[in-house]
Fold Uroporphyrinogen decarboxylase.
Amino acid sequence: MPLIAAATGATPSRRPVWFMRQAGRSLPEYREIRAGRGMLESCFEAELVAEITMQPVRRHDTDAAILFSDIVVPLRAAGIDLDIVAGTGPVIASPIRTAADVAGMPRLDPSSVGAVTSAIGMIIDELPDEKALIGFAGAPFTLASYLIEGGPSRTYERTKAMMLAEPDLWHSFMGRIADITIAFLRAQLDAGVDALQLFDSWAGALSKAQYDEYVAPHSARVMAEVAEYGVPRIHFGVGTGELLNSMTDVGVEVIGVDWRIPLDEAADRVGHRVAIQGNLDPTVLLAGDDAVLEREIDKVVAAGERAIAAGTPGHIFNLGHGVMPNTDAGAVTRAVELIHAL
Amino acid sequence: MPLIAAATGATPSRRPVWFMRQAGRSLPEYREIRAGRGMLESCFEAELVAEITMQPVRRHDTDAAILFSDIVVPLRAAGIDLDIVAGTGPVIASPIRTAADVAGMPRLDPSSVGAVTSAIGMIIDELPDEKALIGFAGAPFTLASYLIEGGPSRTYERTKAMMLAEPDLWHSFMGRIADITIAFLRAQLDAGVDALQLFDSWAGALSKAQYDEYVAPHSARVMAEVAEYGVPRIHFGVGTGELLNSMTDVGVEVIGVDWRIPLDEAADRVGHRVAIQGNLDPTVLLAGDDAVLEREIDKVVAAGERAIAAGTPGHIFNLGHGVMPNTDAGAVTRAVELIHAL
């Protein structure tokens, strides 16, 4: 598998590429199959999950499928009352803010994500041998931010207030979330995913000092608890230029990079210890101009090659964040062709 | 004036401190005076502007007043149909996206911001001699993002699409916005402000390469066109760790830093060429814990002192972004006391 080769310092048979949120609204076939079905319920229907996961692989010939799911799926499966509201994001019915709330946090029984593990079996049956299936979960900090704020936030003010003013409560809470994340990842690994990505999407809201003290120990425990499976572990967040080293230190094989930092510079920052993934600005796919697409892809590929020449074990092409919903599917297909042709 | 001393490499008589958005919802007297009045209309009532500008200086004893206004005020004054919607932000009636839209961009007649310049006169009359009045404007990129997207955005997708796919149109548009920004700043400088801050709040959404090519030339022109006034020029954006050098290169005396980067590291990055401003995480004021407040202020002050010891001309204490609306005013007063006592 080219993706696994690039992640582990081997030589891939072709330049591996996949896109965060490649399964989603940019695809007409996705919009059709999702019509009239809620996001969260869709994540608990095994056949639908498998079908949606496969759609972008069939259409774009990406080198990996990423499980169609959402970072709040294991929280819902554990029994937390929440929904994913179109146009808003996750909304938590009763935000978790007190010691009693934290003490009442449920645990994840792997059988409650049976739809996800069944879907993984179906995907593996269909997926060509050379393509990897990537499992994923939300990292404790990003999940904590939703659970504490009650939904998406621009400021993370209650989250940081708990972190700073009630560190014992914070660490206990993060530990409980990490338990759920670990159980969810292990269920996916037991079902056979080839790699995993831990999304700490909003970690970039933190300073390095905050990340190291309040977040890193919990993400490190997640990574340690899945290490025995021996699959590549990818770690990604947005706006994490200051955190790349810390996010590598938690124990990963691949560090994801957003578009703000050239890949070779990011690779230098982490001392070429791990493979890199990224980092085309997702808006480039929206610009509607083939020459721009080609030029910007060239830049990312060239930076990846400079990183490898300097000692980085490999480069997995991706965006710097997810495919935006109103991206034209044709532009995504074209991007994959260009990347594979280079 | 301690603020001007710190900005210009002299020795301030005390450690200067002010807070972005110090005039605003955190103050009971602000909520009272704004009751029943829209944000935008308030910015065009000279006496109200002067009163609101003075409120935090009286209550907290900060070393500077910052003009109560909004970055879209000069756009509205120039004739662009927009409003500031509570809980949302600026909303533009007819977003600017085509060559015809750009050609139709109005210019700013300084007389249309007469309320602002009158307010400045009133503030100067009341402000104690040792306190600075800071004028401000939005930088062309951040204003462009509102005008193109039609309001606040998390992705800046249309903005970046124009930038990437229609660079000539983009530069022409940015030039027209820069004209308005320059006219607005010159009006404030003519009225007597002691310093100015250019807010490129959302520049952190860009890579350094994007910033350097599409944004820096226009911000540099703004800075050059106000240089003759000889007042300190402060430049600030959120999440700009990768951009600090570029944002300094446009021609400033002070670089503002958000909370993601320790001040001494930020100062190193810009080669100690300019004074630094920042960078307490605004959520620290919300944590509701005096010991945390003191500890975090100590860290910022210590980093500022290390920067100065390494050659940086000065440090102006501030937050890493604005005061959040539900901050307790007492915590802000306490912060100023702590900073002045250190």
